[in-house]
Amino acid sequence: MEKTDVYKPLGPQRKPFLKWQMRTILITMIGYAIFYFVRKNFSLAMPGLTAEYGITNKSFGWIIFIGSLVYGFSRFINGYLVDKIKGRIVMALGLFLCAVANFAFGFGVNLSAMITGADHGADFTSTFIFIMGIIIILNQYFQGMGYPPCARILPHWIHPSELATKMSIWNTSHSVGATLAVLICGYIMGTMGVNLSSNPAWVAQLTTHLTDNGVTDAANQALAYASHTGAWRWCFWIPACIALVGSLFILIGLRDEPKDVGLPDLPDTSLGHYTDAKDKKARKKFEMIMVWKNRWVWTFCIANLFVYIVRMGILDWGPKFLTESRGMKIAEAGWTVAAFEIAGIVGTLFAGWATDHLFKGKAHRMCVFSMVGATLFMTIFRFLPQNSSFLLTTIILIGAGFCIYGPQALIGIALGNQATKEASARANGLAGILGYIGAGLSGLLVGYVADLYGWTHVFETIIVVAVICIFILVSMWQAPRDGYEKSQSINYDE
Question: GO terms for molecular function, please (predicted)?
């Protein structure tokens, strides 16, 4: 059966519309991928910071927790901001400010030394942790200016019947950005910095820091980090330069809506009487019904919390648990996490295709199967012997990455459909709060469980969380594909 051309009603403007659609998808993909360059670099820098300054998993956990909450609320706040200010301006400004924050992070130790008058010791380290926390929190707020513009812009350019497929392609920007970030930063950590491996006092200090933090094979790991002392700084400075160029690219190349370039709105996305009664009262009622009182929006948002605990537990802490629990070198850990991200790209594309072609656009059903797969692979990983080969460990994490990135992408896509193009950014902002509460809890859970009980119990915790998520998603099995029919039934005269 031949597929209906949903853009045919545009007539002679169909071709320019589709060109602008492609341009919008590509620019937002590249721009959002660059946000990850100045976000996931912290994960690769953490092992080096532990080696050089003895910073504990608990400290990192609190920084990740608070930063994640700030990011979630930032996405919510900016979900409203993009309704008042052009999305491309918000997105470009956010990436520029992330670059500034990353430049500042690289100089955090210098600022700590100026304040304390020392370059080591308890006071120096405590001050550095405080400075690091402030900069990461600011960076996370600026990161929250990346997704809301995309969540609002893309549903104006992509038909609901294609939203899962095309936005799944767009969602690979997460994985592309994170993959390139961990590969570049893994290379930086393994090649740059100053070689102080011939300094016995420095090597001994690093060995003590790593031993105190329960790192496997601390002596050899200390030699590796001593050979590249200070390399972690470049994990922030180099991505910051890339982000500066990216912010200009977004500002010049992006447009928010078809009308901004003289094109008509998408077919089949009428919002009923809302279009005619688009005043403050109508907007408030539309948002109340389509977001705040929408059962399916809330269920997706709660599921998002649990998805993020699982995903961020692996992504944020991957380099650390692979080096400390599995004895990998930092470069190997970087490649393993990169493979996890690459698998996420393939998994995201498959999940989007399957949603539209197997589940008729009902993303929640595909999410159930994806979470079941993620749970199975993490269970296998839990029971892998510690001396398992690098290849086997990587293959299992690839399977987990393939499965977990489907729900991560599809929840945002499904919210764009359930809340409609008009309230997509606000619904995704709400999901962002819940998701990054989950990411924050992931930071605390992993940090404390790893320090108190070991990495094995971390994996068990992630498995339990994944099972809870499966039951939440199953509860909405009968939900509709989108909320456009619901939006057309709203009576604005009541």
Answer: glucose 6-phosphate:phosphate antiporter activity
For residue 489, give the H/E element and its range.
Answer: none
Query: Phi first, then psi: what are they for 234, rounded to 5°?
Result: -70, -20
User: How large is the C-alpha radius of gyration of the chain?
Assistant: 23
For residue 132, the tally of other CB atoms under 10 A from its CB is: 23
CA–CA gap between residue 277 and residue 119 (Å, rounded): 63
User: For residue 184, what are the CA distances in angstroms to 103, 142, 244, 341, 405?
Assistant: 17, 22, 17, 14, 21
Token pair of 328 as six digits: 């990998």
Q: Quick one: which of 334, 392, 239 has its CA closest to 47?
A: 334
CA 342, CA 179: separation in Å to the nearest integer? Answer: 7
**Domain membership flag for residue 242:** yes
Residue 215 covered by a domain: no
Is residue 76 within 8 A of residue 432, CB to CB? The reply is yes
Neighbouring CB atoms inside 10 A of 3's CB total 8
Query: 207-254, pLDDT tens digit by residue?
Result: 887 787 767 677 777 777 778 887 888 888 999 999 999 999 999 988
What residue type is assigned to position 314 of the chain?
I
DSSP string, 15-74: HHHHHHHHHHHHHHHHHHHHHHHTTTHHHHHHHHHHHHH---HHHHHHHHHHHHHHHHHH
Q: Residue 434 and residue 101: Cα distance in Å, rounded? A: 25
CB 492 within 8 Å of CB 288:
no
**What is the per-residue pLDDT for 358?**
82
Name residue 194's beta-bridge partners. 229
- What are the structure tokens assigned to 271, written together? 């919002």
Whether the CB-CB separation of 75 and 428 falls below 8 Å is answered with yes
For the cut 70, the answer to whether the pLDDT of residue 21 exceeds it is yes
Highest mean pLDDT among 55-69, 91-105, 125-139: 91-105
Q: Which residue would you say has higher pLDDT here, 355 or 471?
A: 471
DSSP secondary structure string for all residues of 83-134: HHS-HHHHHHHHHHHHHHHHHHHHTHHHHHHHHHS-SSSHHHHHHHHHHHHH
| Predicted structure pTM score | 0.70
In a domain, 2, yes or no: no
Residue 407 near residue 300, CB atoms below 8 Å: no
Q: What are phi and psi of 490, to 5 degrees?
A: -75, 130
50: CATH: 1.20.1250.20
Burial class (CB in 10 A: 0-12, 13-18, 19+), 49: buried
Domain assignment of residue 161, given as a range: 14-193+228-260+279-488
CA distances from 457 to 298, 317, 420 (A): 30, 14, 41
User: Which tokens in the block code for residue 197?
Assistant: 């491996």
Residue whose structure tokens are 């060995």: 207
**Could you tell me if residue 222 is inside a domain?**
no
The pLDDT assigned to 320 comes to 66
Give the C-alpha separation, 389 to 372, whole Å. 25
